[in-house]
């Protein structure tokens, strides 16, 4: 492989590495959003547990508060919590997979850069 071809391969791998980092950042950010949603919904669930059976619950739909059955509200929050937890698990799996890919790509890049330096020095000599 020529020096120019090796340099082009390094540039391509750096671009791929940067794309993986962007994807990683996006997933981490999404996971943080899910985590805050989880905390919020857990708080709602805790508040529901404190209510007596006769308490009235309202759900905001746009600018309007609509009366909602307590059982239905509790079920909706439970389903939402289950969904958020599954999404967090999915995000964590993606993060682990990307960690592996990023580390692998980093090792490849270091090897390519070392090879490039050796060839450049050999060509100069």
Automatic annotation (TrEMBL):
Record has Plastid as a keyword: no
InterPro entries linked to this entry: PFD_beta-like, Prefoldin
Gene Ontology CC terms: cytoplasm; prefoldin complex
GO annotation, biological process: chaperone-mediated protein complex assembly; protein folding
A Pfam family per the record: Prefoldin_2
Keyword annotations from UniProtKB, A to Z: Chaperone, Coiled coil
Any one Gene Ontology molecular-function term assigned to this protein's record: unfolded protein binding
Gene3D superfamilies associated with the record: 1.10.287.370
Keyword Chaperone: yes
Coiled-coil intervals, chain numbering: 74-115
UniProt family annotation: Belongs to the prefoldin subunit beta family.
Protein name in UniProt: Prefoldin, beta subunit
């Amino acid at each position: 492989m020529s020096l120019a071809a090796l340099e082009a391969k390094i540039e391509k791998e750096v671009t791929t590495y940067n794309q993986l980092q962007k994807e990683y950042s996006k997933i981490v950010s999404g996971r943080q959003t899910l985590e805050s949603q989880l905390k919020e919904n857990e708080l709602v669930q805790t508040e529901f547990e404190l209510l007596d059976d006769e308490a009235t619950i309202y759900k905001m739909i746009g600018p309007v508060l609509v009366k909602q059955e307590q059982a239905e509200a509790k079920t909706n929050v439970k389903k939402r919590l289950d969904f958020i937890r599954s999404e967090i698990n999915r995000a964590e799996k993606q993060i682990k997979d990307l960690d592996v890919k990023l580390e692998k790509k980093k090792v490849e890049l270091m090897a390519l850069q070392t090879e490039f330096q050796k060839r450049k020095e050999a060509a100069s000599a």
